[in-house]
Each structure stands twice: as C-alpha cells, then as structure tokens.
Specification:
alpha+beta, Glutaredoxin, 2 domains, 4-stranded antiparallel sheet, 9 helices, about 45% helix, elongated
Length: about 325
Amino acid sequence: MLKSIKFTTITLSLIILSLSLNAKDANIVTNSTIDLDKKILDYNKKMMDFNPNFKLLNQKIIKKEKLGADKNWFAYTLDLEITEIASKKEIKTPYFLFSNGEYFTTTMINLNTNERYGDAFIKSLQDKQQSTQQQIRSDFENKFVLNKDYYTKERFIAGNPDAKIQVAIFSDPLCVYCIKTVPMIIEEVAKRNDIALYYFNFPLDSIHPTSQIIIKAIEASKKLGIKDPELKIYKANLENFYDVYKTKDSQTALYTVNKILDTKLTLTDLDAKDIKNRIDADIKIGVESDIQGTPSILFNGSYVNAREKLLDIIKKK
C-alpha cells in the first residue's frame, strides 16, 4: 500500500513538472536537487563522525518540504540509525536539517512560539515509542519466570538454600545503585532462614571498564577461602580507591581488590576457565532475562513487584 502511494505521488509530481518545464529544464532541476540532497547527507555524516557519543549506521531523507513561506529554505526530515557508544544500543530516530542550498543548520526556532521545528513531532513519536516499550516490558515481566536450574550452589550467597522464597539479584560491584542496595540485602537475608539469595554477575562494561576484572578477582578469591568477598567489595566502595568510570587499567583494579580482601591474586589467576565460564553464563542468563539495569531483583523467578516483596519480608523480622 505504501509503495503504491509513493509511486502515485512521484508520478503526479512528474506530470505536473512536465507541464511547466521542458525536458532539459526538468533534468537540470532534478540533478540539482539530487546533488543538494547528497551534499546534505554527506555534510551531516561528517558532523556525526565528529560526535564521540554516537556512531552513524545509516541515514536517509524521508521528507523534504519548504520552510514556511520561504521559497529558498527547505526542511529535511532524516531517518537516522545510530549506535549509542556508551550503551551500545542501536537507535532509530527522526532528525531535522535545514538548508537553502548554500547554508546548513540543524536548528530552526519559531520567533513567535519559541519552539524548534519538529519538536512536537518528535515528542509525539517518543511518547508513542515509550508507551509501546512500557507495554512490551510489562507483558514480558508478567509472563517471565527465571529457570529454577539457575539457582545453583556457586550462585548462592546468603540465607537458607532450602528456603521456599528464592531471590535472584543481578548486579555489578561498581554500580552506584548496587553499592547502596546489595550490601543491605545480603546482610539482612543472612540473618534469615526463610529466604535464599542467589547472586548473578552482570558487569556493565560500557560504563565501568574494570568491572569484569573486579568480578573475576572476587570469583578467584573464593578459591583461596575468602568469605563473603562480594559483600566486602561492595561495602568498601571502589569509587573510594580509583575512578571506576574512566580507569581501564586491569592492574589498578586488581591491586584494589587485593588490598580490600588481603589477597595476592595475579592477572593470570583471573584467566581460569571456570571463572570465565561462570561469568559468561551469568551474563547469558541476564540477557535471556532481559536485564535492563542493575541491581535487578527477581522474587521466586518473577520481576512483578519483586523489590517490594523482598523489602516487605525483610522488614518483618
């Protein structure tokens, strides 16, 4: 249907053009338009390439219209496909450019309303997308239940492994929200006999470059008989030792873990196959579970009111 409408629109445009111009003039206008459109896309690509936050995957002009009553300026609506470097998310979004064939700008503001051109359109589109995403997420959370086989001995971290209430927590030891929440949960559950707490490693590498090193060191320390290494690392808060957002040096991260846990681990110790397998498995489970942030909590395998249910039980000593 869309292809048919597009074809009809193009056909009508060509008929109207042929009535007002001779063939030679029509070719000149068409070629000029094509050249300008290409110039617009090429220039925008150069601008995007200078942006360290995004990588341009694809772009195309989906609409071109005169800017108000001005015969020279045109508003271009682009369909952009980009990757957000930090989150590695692929995003598809409309984008507006403006040109009169000589000058180029990314912003046009109405002097009477103080609104940017295209703002209303983008907001309505974002609202629609957000509503759809929330509904999809809600449907997923209501139907999803974590596989019971994932509640393994090596993931058990506190409480009673035979308890009927099983809580899974996906976390990154460098996540600021995890640091505030996870130690409290571990310590409270450790006092109880009716909850089993299982810990899943979910490193946010794009935000914390050394998170995998920290996690590997925690796992390696268990082989040395270190008790509760996760809790000790969380309570120490590694932000007090180095910049967890900018530091990429593995040795700095490992030195910090050794200092906190009083160990002498080496980077070679972290390369053990069983450690890699554990972390890879946890990440895979996290992806399957559609983890969208840390800490993420599941109560008896379900996302539905999981945090509220857990905190409610913890309050009831």
